Amino acid sequence: xxxxxxxxxxxxxxxxxxxxxxxxxxxxxxxxxxxxxxxxxxxxxxxxxxxxxxxxxxxxxxxxxxxxxxxxxxxxxxxxxxxxxxxxxxxxxxxxxxxxxxxxxxxxxxxxxxxxxxxxxxxxxxxxxxxxxxxxxxxxxxxxxxxxxxxxxxxxxxxxxxxxxxxxxxxxxxxxxxxxxxxxxxxxxxxxxxxxxxxxxxxxxxxxxxxxxxxxxxxxxxxxxxxxxxxxxxxxxxxxxxxxxxxxxxxxxxxxxxxxxxxxxxxxxxxxxxxxxxxxxxxxxxxxxxxxxxxxxxxxxxxxxxxxxxxxxxxxxxxxxxxxxxxxxxxxxxxxxxxxxxxxxxxxxxxxxxxxxxxxxxxxxxxxxxxxxxxxxxxxxxxxxxxxxxxxxxxxxxxxxxxxxxxxxxxxxxxxxxxxxxxxxxxxxxxxxxxxxxxxxxxxxxxxxxxxxxxxxxxxxxxxxxxxxxxxxxxxxxxxxxxxxxxxxxxxxxxxxxxxxxxxxxxxxxxxxxxxxxxxxxxxxxxxxxxxxxxxxxxxxxxxxxxxxxxxxxxxxxxxxxxxxxxxxxxxxxxxxxxxxxxxxxxxxxxxxxxxxxxxxxxxxxxxxxxxxxxxxxxxxxxxxxxxxxxxxxxxxxxxxxxxxxxxxxxxxxxxxxxxxxxxxxxxxxxxxxxxxxxxxxxxxxxxxxxxxxxxxxxxxxxxxxxxxxxxxxxxxxxxxxxxxxxxxxxxxxxxxxxxxx
Length: 742
Description:
Elements: E1 2-4, E2 27-29, E3 35-41, E4 49-53, E5 59-61, E6 65-68, E7 74-80, E8 86-92, E9 95-96, E10 100-102, H1 106-109, E11 112-118, E12 131-132, E13 135-136, E14 139-162, E15 168-183, H2 191-200, E16 205-208, E17 211-215, E18 222-226, E19 233-241, H3 252-256, E20 270-272, E21 284-286, H4 288-301, E22 342-343, E23 346-347, E24 357-358, E25 364-365, E26 391-394, E27 397-399, E28 404-405, E29 411-414, E30 431-437, E31 446-457, E32 462-467, E33 486-491, E34 501-505, E35 510-514, E36 527-532, E37 551-554, E38 574-580, H5 583-588, E39 597-603, E40 606-610, E41 626-630, E42 635-641, E43 653-662, E44 665-666, E45 676-681, H6 685-694, E46 701-705, E47 720-728, E48 733-741
Parallel strand pairs: 2-10, 20-21, 38-39
Antiparallel strand pairs: 1-3, 3-7, 4-5, 4-8, 6-7, 8-9, 8-10, 11-14, 11-16, 12-13, 14-15, 15-19, 16-17, 17-19, 18-19, 22-23, 24-25, 26-34, 27-33, 28-29, 29-32, 30-31, 30-33, 31-32, 34-35, 35-36, 36-37, 39-40, 40-41, 42-43, 43-44, 43-46, 45-47, 47-48
C-alpha cells in the first residue's frame, strides 16, 4: 500500500462532489517550478510513476529516489521541473492527479504566487517527511492570487512608562503588519486549493514569492465569494511577515510531550545560544550550555574556576593523581602509553615466552590474528614467497551482513561497509554470485548462489535481489544467499557497460576476461581473453591444441614486435609471400631476406625462398639468391632423336640428345658429360658391353648408325639405348634413368 503525502502540490482525489459545474480553473505551474512528489510506503521496494503529456499524447517514466525510516517504511521522492508549456498529469501507482498546466506566459504567472514550504523537523507530522539526514525538502505550490493593498492592517506590541511630568517614555516596541492573502483571484478556484493552503500554513517555514509569512493567530482561509453556477470560490486568510527572519529554537521535549511550542505566550522566545552576542532581556532566554557558561564565568571571576577542580569531558585535560574506574572503560579513539602499558601483572613491552607483544618501536608480533571486520593498512609487505588458491574476482563486490527473505520471495541484503563513507558499487540488474561452504558443520562442500539485483538502496548500503531458477545456473542447482557471503558482479542483461568481468583461477590455471555476460551460464562468445590453459571451446576443435599447454587467446591484438621461437628457443623465421616472381619487381621493390623474415615467390609451379636481399637472379637451380622450398623436387631427363623416330631399315642414322629438368626448369647445361652413362640392350651381353665401352665418352649427344643396332637387329630381336644421368648440386646427387627402343 502506498500513501501520497498530502503536502505534494498536486491533487489526486480532491472531491467526490458530483453536483454543479466543475471549476474552470486549472492548476498552474511555471517551467522553472519544482514539483516535488513524496510517497510513503511499508510494502513497496520500487515505485512506478508516469508523466503524461496531454498535448502530444506521449508519456515517460518518473525516476524516484528512496531512503528508509527506522519504522521500516520507505520514502520515495522525485522532483519534476523544466517541463515545456502544455497540459500534463502524473500517475503514481493506480492514482492519477488532476490535469495541470505549465506555461511561461508572464501575463498568466503574474496572477499567481509561488509558495515554498517545509518543516523544521520530522516530528510535527506523520504524513510527510521533510528531512533526510542533513537534507531538507521544500515543496512548491503555485496558488492563484496574491496580496491586495486594501487588505493591510498594522499593529504594535509595546511597553511605555509615564514619568512625573506627564511625558511618556517608550520602553519597548515592535511593529507588525498583517496582510490578507486572496486565494482565487476574480475567477475563483476549487475548494481543495483552500484546504491545501490551510495545510501549508501549518508548516514552520512558509515563503510567499520568497518572503516568509506565518499564519496570524488561528486565521484560516475563509470563503468570501462563490462564483455563480461554478464550483469556484474566493478565499482570504490573514498572514504576518517575519520581521527578522530568525529561526526560533524550541525545546524538543515539549514537542514530543505535547507541550506548548515555544512556551512564550503571544510572541516567540528567542533562544540565546552559547556563542550568541544577543543582549539578554525579559523576552529571550539562555540555552542550557549558555547557562553553564555564564555560571562558570561568574565563578572564575571570583578566582574559583571549575577548571582546577574537575576534569573536562569535552576539552583536552589532564589529571595529576591516579584515576580508578570501578567498571569497564570504552575508548573510541586510540590508547597511547608513553612509557609502559601494564595489563594485570604483565608489562607489555617485551617478548613473553611465545605470546604476542607490542614492542616499543610500534610493532605487533603474534602467532595468529583474527579480525571480525576489516584490515586497513598503508603498506602490505609479504614474505619472500606467497601463494593463492581458488578463484579471484576483479569486479564490484560486497559482503552480506544479514539476509532477509521478503514476502514476494526476493531477498533484502544489507552489505557491510568497509569504511565510514563506503557505498556499494553494485547496480540494478547486475548478475552476481557468491560461494559459501559448510565447514562450520564439519563438511567440506561448497555451494554457489546466483542472484540478480532488483534494487540498490545506496543510503542504506543494501540491495534487493532474486534467485535464478535451478535451470538457469551452472550445475543445475542454485542455493540461497547467506550472511558473510562475498558477492561478486559478473554481468548485466540490460546495461552493456556492466557485462565485463576479470577473474584469475588457480583451479582452472588461467586468467580470463569475460564480455557480453547477461546470465549465469556462459556462452562461448563470452570468453574475450584467455591466458593460460584454454577452455574446451568448439572454435578450438579443428586446431592442434594441447590443453595441457598454455596459450593466449583474444579477439584482437595490437603489438609492435613479435618474436617467434620453437620449443628449443630457436627463432622461427616468418615468411612474407610476394606471389609470382617478377624481374621488374626485383629491381623496383627488391626481394628481402633477414633473420626475422624472408620473401617467398612462385616460379614455374615451385615456391622459392629468397636467400640474398636485393637479388635480381631468376629463381632456378644453382641460383645463389634462391632456394626451392615447395614444388616438384624430382630430377628428370628426356631423350630426343635428331632425325625423328621413323627410319628405313637400310637408311638408319640419327643422334640422340639428352635434356634434363629440375624444379620444372631446364638444367641441361648443369649436367656434365662425364656424369652420363650410355648402355645398350640387345640381348647379347658380350656385344652390348663392348658397345658401352666404345661409347663411354659420348656425353649428352650419342650418334647412331646401322652398326650400333647390333648384329641381330635384322632378326627382329630389337635394340634399347639406356641413359643414366647424374646431376650434382654440391649437397645431394640427383640421379635418373631413361631409354629409347628401336
